Amino acid sequence: MSKKLKNIICLGGGNAMPKAVLAGLKKYPVNLSVICAMLDSGASAGREREIYKTNISFGDIRRAFLALSGASQDVKDAFNVRFKNGPYAGAVVANILGTAVAKEGDYEKALRVYGEVFKISSRYHILPSTLDDATLYAELENGQIIKGEANIDVPKHNSKISKVYLKPKPGAYPEAVEAIKKADLIIIGPGDLYSSLMQILLIDGISAAINKSKAKKVYICNIMTKKGETDGFSVLDFTNEIEKYLKGRVDFIIHNNKEGNVRINDDLKNNKKFIGKNLLKSGTVEHNPNKLAKIILKLCKL
Q1: Cα separation of 40 and 258, whole Å?
Q2: DSSP state for residue 266 in the 8-state scheme
Q3: CA distance linking residue 53 with residue 140, whole number of Å
Q4: Residues 279, 291 contacting (CB under 8 angstroms)
Q5: What is the torsional sign of CA 185, 168, 144, 58?
Q6: What is the side-by-side strand order in the sheet with 145-147?
Q7: Of the candidates 142, 148, 241, 156, which has an alpha carbon nearest to the alpha carbon of residue 191?
């Protein structure tokens, strides 16, 4: 009798989660569902979203598809080409493909096309967090309101973020909620705290589904802080913010205990909830996906 594969859910956006988590876990016999941030407002993907009036952008979900793609390297490279000049300067081929289909209003068709082009295994499900149009806002401690993920991601302010919110409130993609219900392990991060992870947790139905799930919840803390978002943050600061917007607790926090500028709180060292390891890839200040995968798979067995 074959052993049932574990269902692991990964939430995130940007490059961090695909490179740190998906790159390692795809080497093991597990079922992976990825729930992606969809509300970029800047760079090429955000511009395409604005110009063609699509509810969502394809930058982050493209990265997840590429990370789990079974297509040839030539195909992956071709769809990851970024135009250097001309009318499409800065745009990525795969983003243009997704936007071209989605601008007719058929977002799910765009995702099906991605799945076929990138030859995604039946063990993998790459899902949008939402298909609804919404804007991420940040309120600073000085009362200033910052509009748009891009302006939070690349800040022009000096004040700390007091809170972030979405307007109008988008609803969760139904299949994302169903995937969470079936999860054995739910992983949040790594990724930009406010401009990436929070935009997922703020979507109506996502946090509620996570809290209701009996799966173990794991937060992977960033190695570095980010100017304008998390200046001076400690591991506990990151964790507290995740739990604040989740409106619930995570079971484990995996964090790096070597180089990096995220402070490690002294009172966490004997707390079994906090798993501190050398997570660095040799010669870089980046997560080593193989080290992370081994820790994650151990947690699956607990």
Answers
A1: 31
A2: G
A3: 28
A4: yes
A5: positive
A6: 145-147, 135-140, 161-167
A7: 241
